[in-house]
Amino acid sequence: MTRRSALTAALIVIAVALAPSALAAADPAAVINHLGNRALEILGKNATPAQRAARFQELFREDFDVPGIARFVLGRYWKTATPEQQQEFVKLFEDYIALVYSAQLAAYSGETLKVTGSRPGPEGAIVASEIVRPTGGPPVKVEWHLTDRGGIYKINDVAVDGISMAVTQRSEFAAVIQRSGGQVQGLITQLREKTGNSAPR
Amino acid sequence: MNLRPPRLAFSNLSLVVVLILSGCATEPNTAQLGAAEQEDFNDPFEDTNRAIFDFNQVVDRNVLVPIAKTYRTVLPDPVRDSLRDFLRNLREPLIFVNDAFQGDFERAGQTFARFALNSTVGLAGFVDVVGRWGQLPYHEEDLGVTFGVWGIPEGPYLVIPVLGPSNPRDLVGQVGEGFGDPWTVLVTGNPYNLRWIPFVRGGVSGIDQRSRYIETLADIERTSLDYYATIRSLYRQRRAALIRHEKEQNLPPPSSFAQRGGPSPSAATIGPAAQTVFVSEAATVPEVSR
């Protein structure tokens, strides 16, 4: 075996070894099916608010492309932030997202997620799904945008009835920064207050 | 045993793996960043809009929400749903016209069938027989969306007193529907003084919609950093999505908006979506026609 082919072989081994994590399945639809129903199950009415927030944060860290999303929602201000600000922002953003969505998910009780299709997206795949209500009301259309992160699918956006959660968040954060005189620090301060975090150290 | 080649291979390899893992994870997404560079709120009258938004919030907190809560408490769910179905049925003639204007004759036919059957078998629209047993659910449509399908741009974002988020295109659509609504024409074009009817209809319609999003909106307001900016983004995205869906005729029709009983699941998943849904429905409540 030449050194080069040994390297190739080793790379393949590594790629395969990386694959069997939660979101590594070749089929993005199966990934969303699993994640969506797990989320509906563990985040529903039976959980206490604290449990819900903790579980949500766990799911978010595992299955979402958190660094990519954090960068996206900060938009052009990502570049103007110092490395310390970037680092603190990512942490606060995780807490903030858990706060926002665990409150919304509290209304869940008995809903199921049905994957209706998937197609290639700009960076991976887009999985279309419907949240089916036990009462038989009209289903809600949810699209999951997945990005391929070295063979592992991570979610980088969720669109509900055509509304992108990432775009909504970016728009709000940009407004907050603009109203703080273009300073990212203004957003960080407000996020600290909202999430009950104090300044680091 | 020669250890050197493996070690070299290993160091190369770890470098490659690190590049794959961290490189991918932190490499800016050019498509996303490209859009992000030009964050466009489309809101040249932001100061005025924010002032009106604050005023609307005062009205909402002190008038609309208390009325909506009472309405929800006093009327049992089936009665509220029935009333909502009746109000929706009154909108069907306008929806039919909009379907046709958009060139979607299949949906126009469905709307016509819904109106004909629900108005008769469905006891003047109080029972949505077609939606419930006929697999043809209600769909919302308005002149603002039709204008969008025709390629008319939205114009600057506007907040209208009491009515909420809008833009010139949607506002003209609302006024146009107000004049064109057959029920309004009917009650104004006769010798009896029935001009109050459209106002009652608009009021009840607004309260019914508000009563379905009390908790959702409260949650969004509580958790958002800038409620105004969140609503602005939700409204604009929702309107754009409706127009996009109409243009992509092959896609299934957008799910009908208001939810049947209980907290809406859009509310649950993504709170903001349900919010926009409310906002977009509210935006179609013209002062005179409903």
Note the gap between the termini of chain B: 87 Å
Q: How many strand segments of chain B?
A: 2
**Binned strand content of chain A:** 15-25%
Helix content of chain B: 55-70%
* Helix/strand class of chain B: mainly alpha
Number of strands of chain A: 5
**Helical run tally of chain A:** 8
Molecular shape of chain B: globular
Radius of gyration of chain B: 24 Å
TL;DR of this structure?
The complex is a heterodimer of chains A (201) and B (290). Chain A has 201 residues and is of the alpha+beta class.
Describe, in plain words, how this protein is organized in 3D.
The complex is a heterodimer of chains A (201) and B (290). By secondary structure, chain A is of the alpha+beta class. Helices cover 54% and strands 19% of the residues of chain A. Chain A is built from eight helices and five strands, in the order H-H-H-H-H-H-E-E-E-E-E-H-H. In chain A, strands 1-2-3-4-5 form a five-stranded antiparallel sheet. In chain A, strand 4 (152-160) and strand 5 form a beta hairpin. The longest helix of chain A has 23 residues, at 83-105. Chain A is globular. Chain B has helices spanning 4-26, 30-37, 46-74, 77-101, 105-120, 129-133, 143-149, 168-180, 182-188, 196-211, 214-223, 227-247, 265-270, 272-283; strands at residues 158-160, 164-166. Chain B has 14 helices and two strands; from the N terminus they run H-H-H-H-H-H-H-E-E-H-H-H-H-H-H-H. Chain B has a two-stranded antiparallel sheet with strand order 1-2. In chain B, strand 1 and strand 2 (164-166) form a beta hairpin. Chain B has 290 residues and is mainly α. In chain B, helix 3 crosses helix 10 (196-211).
List descriptors:
heterodimer, A: 201 residues, alpha+beta, five-stranded antiparallel beta sheet, 5 strands, 54% helix, B: 290 residues, mainly alpha, two-stranded antiparallel sheet, 14 helices, globular, disordered N terminus, disordered C terminus
